[in-house]
Structures are given as C-alpha cells and as structure tokens.
C-alpha cells in the first residue's frame, strides 16, 4: 500500500522469481528494464496503482510471462 516508486534494478537479484504482486500501491511509473532479469516470471500483478503508461518493451525479456496472468486493471491509464 505504500510503494510510490521502484528503483531500477530493485529485483535484479531475484532471478528465480515466478510471481510478483505489486497491486494496491501508489506506483505511477515503472523504470525501464525493471523486470529484465526475471526471466522465470509467470505472473505479475500491478492492478490498483496509479500507472498511466508502461515503458516500451517493459515485458520483452520475460519469455515465461503469460499475458493471461498480467493484471493491470484499475490504473489511471492515459
């Protein structure tokens, strides 16, 4: 509920991560490359934040991410 920003590289050491839930926070943006080392990531929850856009290619290094398991609803999209 308290996250307002993520630092680039914040998840770099978590290379075996398969699920990441960041919902119900105050995130307004994601740093470019923030998920680049999470190649095993399969589920990503980003709903109920204040995201207005996503960086180009934010998911391009995530071959295992199933887009049926990416939750982005209830954000403030432009």
From TrEMBL:
Q: Name one GO cellular component term.
A: extracellular matrix
Could you confirm whether the keyword Signal appears in this record?
A: yes
Keyword entries, A-Z: Leucine-rich repeat, Repeat, Signal
Determine if Metal-binding is one of this entry's keywords: no
Which InterPro entries does the protein's record reference? Dev_Immune_Receptor, Leu-rich_rpt, Leu-rich_rpt_typical-subtyp, LRR_dom_sf
* Domain of life assignment: Eukaryota
Question: Which PANTHER family does the annotation name?
Answer: FISH-LIPS, ISOFORM E (PTHR24373:SF370), SLIT RELATED LEUCINE-RICH REPEAT NEURONAL PROTEIN (PTHR24373)
Name-wise, this protein is Variable lymphocyte receptor B cassette
Please name the source species: Petromyzon marinus
């Amino acid at each position: 509920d308290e996250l307002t920003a993520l630092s680039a590289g914040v998840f770099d050491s978590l290379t075996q991560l398969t699920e990441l839930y960041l919902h119900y926070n105050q995130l307004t943006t994601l740093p470019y490359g923030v998920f680049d080392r999470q190649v095993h990531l399969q589920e990503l929850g980003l709903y109920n934040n204040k995201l207005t856009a996503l960086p180009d290619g934010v998911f391009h290094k995530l071959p295992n991410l199933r887009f049926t398991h990416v939750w982005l609803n209830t954000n403030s999209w432009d």
